[in-house]
Amino acid sequence: MEFGMFHQFPVVPGGSEGDAFARGFEQVDAAERYGLDAMWLAELHVDPARSVLAAPMTIASAIASRTERIRIGIAVQVLPLCHPLRIAEEAATVDQVSKGRLIFGVGRSGLPRTYEAYGIPYAESKDRFAETLHVIEQAWTQPRFSYEGHYYSFDNVALTPKPHQKPLPPIRVAASSPDTFPAIGKLGYPIFVMPRGTFSDMLPAILSYRAAYREAGHPGNGQVYMRVPLYVGDTAERARSEPEPSIMHFFREQAARLRASANRPGTSANDGRTERAAMLDTLTYEDAIRGKIIIGTPDQVAAQLHALKEELGLDGILAELNTGGQIPHDCVVNALRLLCQEVKPMFH
Fold first, then answer.
1. What's 37's DSSP letter?
2. What are the beta bridge partners of residue 226?
């Protein structure tokens, strides 16, 4: 099982943007030192109280230059906001600089406000995503290519550099709405999932993905990677108490974002955002512990992960070790150490 950390380079209350970058890179260095498999970078825009991670490829290149072993993943590059040639060039450059350590995670994002800031209609996100991904794959794998689409057209273009990994870096696609799971399975990509309810609620969607994957004739069973709010403590009491304020802040902020994005242009009136916001408004920490987050000592966390792997058939996790972005830096680094040195070995 692959062990990764989902990183947002969060802004610490009372801290500067410079502090966010400094602490973020300290955690990257610790992950390299402790033996984590992959560092996953979010892409977040126009939310200064939350994160400075607006340019994941730039951060990925910086990580490539200061590490030698850890894989560098994007979770996720919001493709509809990108020019396909530009992002293909940047991602291939990161893959070259890192000597083939890039994992190219892609998605559409569920935040209409970001699209509005970029001047791109959210209603176009699905079609823009498909077109952009197709262009990137052509650019990476063909000496020259031409393309005529709705949003972009290219004539006899030779992209350089090509990726270090041949024929191209591994691509993983974020799945959220029920219809996207079989659609991605049919195309044969591995998927990222982030539970909207409990972890167990994801099983039907994952089964639909794997069924479509097999029916399309792809080898294997399809790969599933889950973003998991997770915290490991030296004792059960510390594991429970240290992250609680930040985790509850996360759920309340999620509720606010869902409520703000409901009924925005391009969203569906029946996509459940208002209902999910109301549920998160009243969620208690006890509720969260029952199936929405994983906390505990290394043994307790390992047991929960083993059960989750067995139930859902997970191939890896993106452990969100600072859910809510307000857990003290030293606590995050210690949780990372425990995850790598004590939990991860129980899966080999």
1. S
2. 193, 317
**C-alpha separations of 17 from 20, 322, 328 in Å:** 5, 17, 16
Interhelix angle 84-97/125-141, rounded to 10 degrees, is 50
Q: Do you find a cis peptide bond into 76, omega within 30 degrees of 0?
A: yes
Burial 185-215 (b: 16+ CB within 10 A, else e): bbeebbbbbbbbeebeebeebbebbbebbee
* Integer CA distances (angstroms), 57 to 87, 88, 118, 177, in order: 8, 11, 18, 26
Q: What pLDDT score was predicted for residue 269?
A: 58
pTM of the model: 0.94
Whose CA is closest to 230, among 313, 315, 311, 344?
A: 344
> Looking at the domain 2-242+290-347, which fold is it?
TIM Barrel (3.20.20)
Residue 270 pLDDT > 70:
no
In the chain, what are the domain boundaries? 2-242+290-347
- Please state, in angstroms and as integers, the Cα–Cα distance from residue 287 to each residue in 116, 118, 167, 195, 251, following that order: 34, 37, 45, 14, 11
Instruction: State the average pLDDT for the chain.
Output: 95
